[in-house]
Amino acid sequence: MTSNLQALCFDAHNPLRLAQFWAGVLKWELVEDPRTGPTLLPGDDTGFNLRFQPTDEPKRGPNLYHFDLTSQTPEEQRETVARALELGGSHLDIGQLPEETHVVLADPEGNEFCVLAEGNNFLADCGFLGALAGDGTQQVGYFWHQALNWPLVWDQDEETAIRSPHGGPKVTWGGPPVAPKLGKSRVHFDLAPPADGNQEAEVERLLALGAKRVDIGQTETDWVVLADPDGNEFCLHPPR
Asked: Where does the Glyoxalase-like domain lie (predicted)?
């Protein structure tokens, strides 16, 4: 039994507004899920949804994960940047150099993302949402490789990347130095066992791989909150 990645979840002060922004940028369908709130359904082979959940907590420092959006031509890169700005995004200075070809932006709640120039060989066979780029150790890349049973498509100089066998974006971790964790992550994975699986057995498997149970103030819920070896929270829901 292996967990399925159901969704990438964003904590948001205004979940619907943030979902509308990303629906416009990615051109994905926005639905109101009665269980999880505003949810985006991919229109390509991405394989997981985006969920937006309410929080009152302020954003503290850069996110653990950010999107890398790809471009096939210079015109497409300019169009993506213009569309994001028109929808409420903004340019962001994170110390990038003038000669760098990617454009760094922030969504309306300050979540970072990059619009890459054409010719990115690493993401050449990926779609518009080319990568979910993470700040993390080699160990955490190995953990998610085993947790999701996704092939390890990069493992060099302590940088790792995995990708679903069905395609979609790569999930990458840049290796050391890893930024210190500043409170609960604003972006996290939602997992679930297969429909015929057992939630508690999957919890035990993930614990054996290096996960830990964590308390983020959850009350009576049907999901289990865990953390990966880098201490980043994720949720394991019951099979549905």
From this structure: 8-116, 137-236
Question: Residue 23 CA to chain centroid, in angstroms?
Answer: 15
**pLDDT tens digits for range 153-208:** 999 999 999 999 999 999 999 999 998 988 889 999 999 998 888 999 999 999 99
CATH class in words for 4-173: alpha beta
State phi, psi for 140 to the nearest 5 degrees. -75, -30
